[in-house]
Amino acid sequence: MARSVAEHLVNQLVAAGVERIYGIVGDSLNPIVDAVRRTDGISWVQVRHEEAAAFAAAAEAEVTGKLTACAGSCGPGNLHLINGLYDANRSRLPVLAIASHIPSEQIGTQFFQETHPDRLFNEASVYSEMISTAKQVPRVTRTAIQHALTVPGVAVLTLPGDVADEHVPDDDAPILVPGACPARVVPHEDDVDALAEAINRAKKVTLFVGAGARGAREEVLELADLASAPVGHSLRGKEIIQYENPHDVGMSGLLGYGACQEAMEEADLLVLVGTDFPYDAFLPDDVPTAQIDIDVSHLGRRTRLDVPVHGDVGETLRLLNTRIVRKKDDKFLRSMVKKHAGIMTKVVGAYTRNVEKHKPIHPEYAAVQLDETAAEDAVFTVDTGMNNVWAARYLTPNGRRRVIGSFLHGSMANALPHAIGAAMAEPGRQVVALAGDGGLSMLLGELLTVKAYDLPVKIVVFNNSSLGMVKLEMLVEGLPSHATDSPPVDYRNIALAMGIPAVQVEEPRDLRKALQDGLDRPGPALIEVLTDPNALSIPPSITSGQIRGFATAMTKEVFGGGMGEVMSMARSNLRNLPR
C-alpha cells in the first residue's frame, strides 16, 4: 500500500525505537500528527512550548541512549525548538527534530511565517536537510536517523506540509538500514608508550576526569591506584567517578569544591581523561599536561598539551595500565585526600550548626536534605545557575543516580522540561526537577504538561527571588547587582491552581518532612523552598581580579545605601570561603 512521506517517516521512527514525539500541533505539522495517531507504538506528547519539546527529547535520549524526536510547526513553531536543540547537540544526544515548513510553492516569496529552517538549524545539528520531493524518501529520512544515532547529535528534517502528504514512490524500500555496532577507537601504540613514560617519570600525577570516561570507570580507578594519583572531575564526570573512590578530591571550575584545584596545580603531570573542560582559567598552564580523548579536535584546544592520545578512554587505559609501574610513594595522594576531607568537613559544618534557626533556609542545607531523602536511583534534572552549584556539591552519586542539566550550553529553564522527558522515558523511576525560581518561571506553562499527563515529577523549587548566578557574575566584575532580584512569587499556589499538590517551606525544621511527603506521594508534586538570596558560590580558586571586583562592588553597594545587604551577604557566604 502506498504511504505518504509523513507515514513513511513515522514508521521509520518507530523502527528506530522512537516511542513518542514531543511538540505542539500546527497546520503544517498536521500530516505528521495524523500519521502518529494512526500508527501503533508511537504517541504525541503535547507540551506548552516547543523549547520544552526539545529539552524533553534530549533528556529522554540522555537516560535511555535511544533515538528520540520532537517537532515544531512552520516559522515560529520550529524556531522555538532551537535552544533545546542547541543543548542536545552540544551534549551529543541522538535527537531527530521535524521542522515543518510553509507550502513548497511559497518558499522564497516572503510568505506568512516563512523562515529557512534548513539553514537556521545548521549550527545546532549534525545534519539538517529539507525534503522538497517525495523521491528523497526514504534515503534522506534514513540518513537523518543514522546521523543522529552514530555521530551522535541532532538531525533536523525540514518538511513542507504539502510534501508530507505526497506518496512515497519507492514504498517497498527498506525502512531502515541496520545500524552498525560502535567502532573501537584504539590509540596508536607510540602515544600509549609516551603517556606511560610520562606517568612513570612523574612524581606527582593528578587525573582530571570527564564524561568521556563513561564505561571506563574501573580502568580509571586502576590507573589512579597504580599512579597514586588524586582524581578530580568535571561536572559531567561527577556521576561517573566520584562515588566509592578513595582518590576523590572533588571538582574544579566555577562550581568547584574540595582539593581538586590544588591537586592539579601542585602536580608535575596532569592527565585529562575524557574531558573537554571549557574553563581554561582553572587549568594550570605551568603543569605538563596529557590528554586522552576520542575526538581528536578536542586535543589541546583548552590548555597546554605535552602528551596527546587520540582514543577511547577505555581502550586507551586497557593498553596503558599494563605499562604503568606502581608508585611506591603515595605522599602526594594522601596529602590531597586529607586536604579535601578537611575542606569538605568545614563546608558541611558551616551550615549545619544551628541550621534549624536560620531563615531564609540555607540552599546548601536544602540540597543535602534532598540528597538524603531522594531515591537511590533517582534522576535529578538541574536548572542552570546556583542550583547547578548546590547539585554539583551536595547531590551524592552512587552509580545508579543520574544528574542531567544544560552543562555545556548553560541554558536557563531546562530542569522542568528535562524532567518531563525523563519521566516519560522511565515512568517507574523517581524524577526530581531541581528548579530555580528564575528557571521555572521561564517555562512555567510546562507544569500544565506535567499535570495533563499526571507525570510523577517532583519539582523542588529553590526560591530566592533572585538570579543568584548573575548577581555573582556582576560582583566579580566589580558591579553592584542590578535587576537580579524579582518580586516574591508563591509557586505553591500557582501549582495548586493547576491541580498539582504543593507546599511551601519557610522553616528549616519542616523541610525534611515536606520533601519526603512530596517524594513519596503518587503523581506530581511541587515543594517550594524559600532559600537565602545572599548565598553565593565561591569558586575553588579566587583570582586577585575577582577579589578586587568583589571589593569594588561592595564599596558601591555601601555608598549606594546597601550596607545592610552587604552585611547579610557577608554572613551568608563566610561559610563557603575556601580554607
TrEMBL record:
Top-level taxon: Bacteria
Chain ranges of the Thiamine pyrophosphate enzyme N-terminal TPP-binding domain: 4-115
Sequence ranges assigned to domain Thiamine pyrophosphate enzyme central in this UniProt record: 192-319
Keyword annotations from UniProtKB, A to Z: Pyruvate, Thiamine pyrophosphate
Domain called Thiamine pyrophosphate enzyme TPP-binding: residue spans: 383-529
InterPro entries membership: DHS-like_NAD/FAD-binding_dom, POXB-like, THDP-binding, Thiamin_PyroP_enz_cen_dom, Thiamin_PyroP_enz_TPP-bd_dom, TPP-bd_CS, TPP_enzyme_TPP-bd, TPP_POXB-like
Pfam family, one: TPP_enzyme_M
Similarity section: Belongs to the TPP enzyme family.
Record protein name field: Pyruvate dehydrogenase
Lineage: Bacteria, Bacillati, Actinomycetota, Actinomycetes, Micrococcales
